[in-house]
């Protein structure tokens, strides 16, 4: 059995900006809404596919330095962009697929998220858009 | 034409060709790319040679 252990090498690119070394967590949720089509005569509930409703959530260390997190994220609020995530920074392959969420909307950002004695982090959730998986 | 400024995007100074769906304005506003044209090598114009009166 082969498993994936995420230590330090996943690749996270937001709006073409590689923020991998500021990222500590990433989650892709691939969803196609279920529409119930159960009818009289059915003995169990049944469903058919509705609209895709995908999202990506990432946790990043906050940094206000040039070319770091804040300048890369701040201007994306209220707009759509593309996010690309790979399990490893290596070349895209069947064992290192690339997931791209295109036209994803960023609703909010927390420029200040500070606690005494802790590194500041931000959680971003990109919603909507089309998710594609590439293996080459 | 866009030029890469931030090494998080690529090699600074290289041409940036945005993929579909990339928010270019956000990159410009964040100073991550610029719209500057690549600098051309300076040409030295030779001074005109004045003809000597005979």
What this model shows, in words?
The complex is a heterodimer of chains A (about 140) and B (about 55). Chain A has one helix spanning about 70-75, and strands at about 10-15, 15-20, 25-30, 30-35, 45-50, 55-60, 80-85, 100-105, 120-125, 130-135. In chain A, a hairpin with a 2-residue loop joins strand 1 and strand 2 (about 15-20). In chain A, strands 1, 2, 3, 6, 7, 8, 9 and 10 form an 8-stranded antiparallel sheet that branches. Chain A is mainly β and about 140 residues long. Chain A is built from 1 helix and 10 strands; from the N terminus they run ββββββαββββ. Chain B is of the alpha+beta class. The mean pLDDT of chain B is about 85. The interface of A and B includes residues 17, 66, 67, 82 and 103 of A.
The secondary-structure class of chain A comes to: mainly beta
Structural class of chain B: alpha+beta
Oligomer classification: heterodimer
Helix content of chain B: 10-25%
- State the shape of chain B: rod-shaped
Strand order of the largest sheet of chain B: 2-1-3
Q: How much strand content do the residues of chain B show?
A: 5-15%
Question: What is the gist of this entry?
Answer:
The complex is a heterodimer of chains A (136) and B (54). Chain A is mostly beta strands. Helices cover 4% and strands 43% of the residues of chain A.
List keywords for this structure.
heterodimer, A: 136 residues, mainly beta, eight-stranded antiparallel beta sheet, two-stranded antiparallel ribbon, 10 strands, globular, B: 54 residues, alpha+beta, three-stranded antiparallel beta sheet, 1 helix, 13% strand, rod-shaped
